[in-house]
Structure formats: structure tokens, C-alpha cells
Amino acid sequence: MSLNDPQWGKRGNSGGPPDLDEIWRNVNRRLNDFLGRRGGGGDDSAGGGGDGPPRRGMALGGAGLVIALVAAVWLASGFYIVDEGRRGVVTRFGKFTETTQPGPRWHLPFPIETVELVDFSQVRTVEIGYRNSTANRNAKEATMLTEDENIIDIQFAVQYNLNSAEAFVFNNRKPEEMVKSVAESTIREVVGRSKMDFALYEGREQIAQQTRDLMQKLMDRYKTGVFVQKVTLQSVQPPDKVQAAFDDAVKAAQDRVRLVNEGQAYANDVVPRARGMASRLLEEANGYNTEVTQRAEGDASRFRSVLTEYTKAPGVTRDRLYLDMMQSVLGSTSKVLVDPKSGSNLLYLPLDKLMQQSGAAAAVPEAAAPRPGVAPPPETAAPAAADARSREGLRSRER
To answer: Residues 224, 228, 232, 237: is their CA dihedral positive or negative?
Structure first.
């Protein structure tokens, strides 16, 4: 039999396909029996042959069950779970209703209410001037102008998370693009107020902090729900075309600083030494001045006292002065006294022994303090010289 035959499925022969209406009636009857219903207006033995009303009752009961199942599934679709670190933003017909915390939650199913899960704890990163690595440079984003009209390339990254899921979802259409635009415009403003040397060397941390603070103010003003955690400068350098000239300038600046430091160190070493020497010479001069002045005053005072005594007794004073002078002159020399009036006999004096003793006494201080670089004289030199002088003295007396 052809499948296009309109009587296909309704024939009672055992060789044809099953009747779909019969299968549907069997399913409805079993569902009604399961739910405790009776299938039809009377039993089959009394009513005899009317299948119309029982079939309509079975169809209505099956449709209600299907509707109940669909409603249960629809209501069950409103259950959802918010994971830790996330927030659920619930909207009713597109209007914000509430923000749900982590845990199992339920909302009116679609299309009445919808929920969007937002990762609240994830730290997100926006890269400006490069992509994934500083070698992948983006010249359009990295090139900036400083206050002294110099061009530098800055590559930096912004790390942020969310502090308001509602603001992040509803107040901006593309919040990540907004964060990137705000970061780029903010750092251009900060760099535009800074000198080139400040941006390249000592001011990197300050530029990053100022950029972070200004970004946060703009994000709060725009109500983006974004909290800027950190701004990190990855690379700050002049453009590649002037890198060689800039390296030479940096090297020259470093040499200048080094030479200045060396000169300052030399000055710190020489100036205190010169000041100390000048102070020492000044103190010595003051001491010499005081010594000479006091000595002159003492001599003048002594002369005046001697003059007073001389006016009183000139002869005695002259003799006294003569004796004092002779004592001061002869007190430090060797002396040999010969009295020719004692007799004509030759008086033998041990001049050699006397000269030897005087020579030994003079050699002791010299040996105690030898001069550097001068070899000490031999020990036999002084006695030999003393013996020679003794023999010469004896010969002179014999003559």
C-alpha cells in the first residue's frame, strides 16, 4: 500500500502500521487511570457504542496535564545559582530589579525576568601601547607628548575590578572599551604636565599613581562601577628613531654627574685640609707673637731692674754681669785650667782622658737621636780622634 493513501493508518488489518489516534487514546486513558479518573460517561457494556464524549474528555485531561507540566518546567527555569565571587543582576522586562548575592536564587522565568551573572571578584587587565608583550608595540597608543615638547613611548597596564554590578551592566554599553579610553586619555594628560626627564627616570611611580587617581575620579563620575586597583608602567623610552641620540645624551649627562661628584669629593678632601692647615698656621703665629711679645716685655723689665741696680752700684753690677755672662758661656764647654805660677816643673795633665770623656759625652746625645738616612759613625772614630788631639797637645807643650 502506498504511503500517500488517505486510508493509511486507519485499516484494521494486522499487517498495516498502528493507528496514531488509537495510540493517543491509550496514552490518555492510562494517564486518567493513573490520576484516578474514569474514562468516559458510562461503561462500555451499558452505553453501547458512543466513543465521542469519552474521547473528548480524555483529550481535555491530557492537554491539562501537558499544560501543567509545561508550567512546572517554566517555573522551574527561574531557579539559578550565583557562584562565589559573582553577583546576579535581575531585570524585569528590561528594568533593573535587584542584585542577588552568592547562593541558590529564583526569579520569575523568561520573558518576565532575566538574570545576568557578573564576575565581581575577577581582576581584569587593560593593556595600552602593547598587546600581550612589550615587543608587540602599538605606536598609536604608546606615543605621547611631554610638557617640554618631547615625544616618548609609554606602555602600561591597568588592573581593575568591579564595585557595582548594576552600574557596570546598565550605565555603560561597552565598559571595557570605556576603561581603555579613559586610561589612555588620563595618562596623556599626566604626561603632558611632566618633563621628559621626569617621566623617564625619577617620576615613573608618581605618574602611575597620578594616572590611577585621575582614572578613579573619572570612573566614579561616569558611574561605571569600576574600581581601578593599579596602574603599572611597563616601558618608558624615547622613540626608536632617536634612541641612539638619546643614549648619547644620557651618557653625557651621566658623565657630567660623575665628574661633578668627583670634583665635589676632591673639594671635600682638600678644603677641610687647607682650612685645618690655615688654622694651625694662624695658631702658631699667634703663639709666636705672644712668645716674642712676652719675652720682649720680660727683657725690658729685666733691663729696667738691672739699670736701677747699676745706678746704685755700677762696679758691682758690672762684675756681676761679667760673671753671669762667663758662666753662661763657659758653663756648656770643656775647660782645662793651667797655673804657670805653681812652678817650673812640667805639669802633666791627662788631656787625652779629659778630651775622650768630653767626646764620649757629646757622642751620647747624637747616638740617642740618629738622623734618618745617615749611617751611624763607627764606634772607634771618637776614641781615635781624641787620641790624636791628645798627642798634638803633648807635642805643643814639649816645644
So the answer is: positive
Are 146 and 203 in contact by the 8 Å Cβ rule? The answer is: no
Please tell me the distance from the alpha carbon of residue 227 to that of residue 163, in angstroms, as a whole number. 6
Q: 104, 46, 116: which is closest to 76 by C-alpha?
A: 104
Instruction: Check if the beta carbon of residue 129 is closer than 8 Å to that of residue 231.
Output: no
SS3 253: helix
CATH homologous superfamily of 124-238 equals Band 7 domain (3.30.479.30)
What CA–CA distance (Å, rounded) separates 144 from 199? Answer: 11
The predicted model scores a pTM of: 0.45
Walk along the chain (399 residues) in steps of 10 and give the mean pLDDT of each run: 46 53 71 56 43 52 74 77 73 73 75 75 86 80 86 90 80 84 91 87 88 91 88 86 79 91 93 93 94 93 87 86 84 67 56 68 56 46 48 47
Residue that the C-alpha cell 628613531 belongs to? 241
CB distance 47 to 41 below 8 Å: yes
Distance CA 358, CA 333 (A): 9
DSSP 242: G
CA dist., res. 395 & res. 344, Å (int): 18
Distance CA 298, CA 302 (A): 6
Q: Which three cell numbers stand for residue 303?
A: 733691663
Phi, psi for 125 (deg, rounded to 5): -130, 135
Q: Which DSSP category does 208 fall into?
A: H
Task: Label residue 220 exposed, middle or buried (CB < 10 Å: 0-12, 13-18, 19+).
Answer: middle
Q: What are the distances in angstroms from CA 62 to CA 40, 72, 338?
A: 14, 15, 172
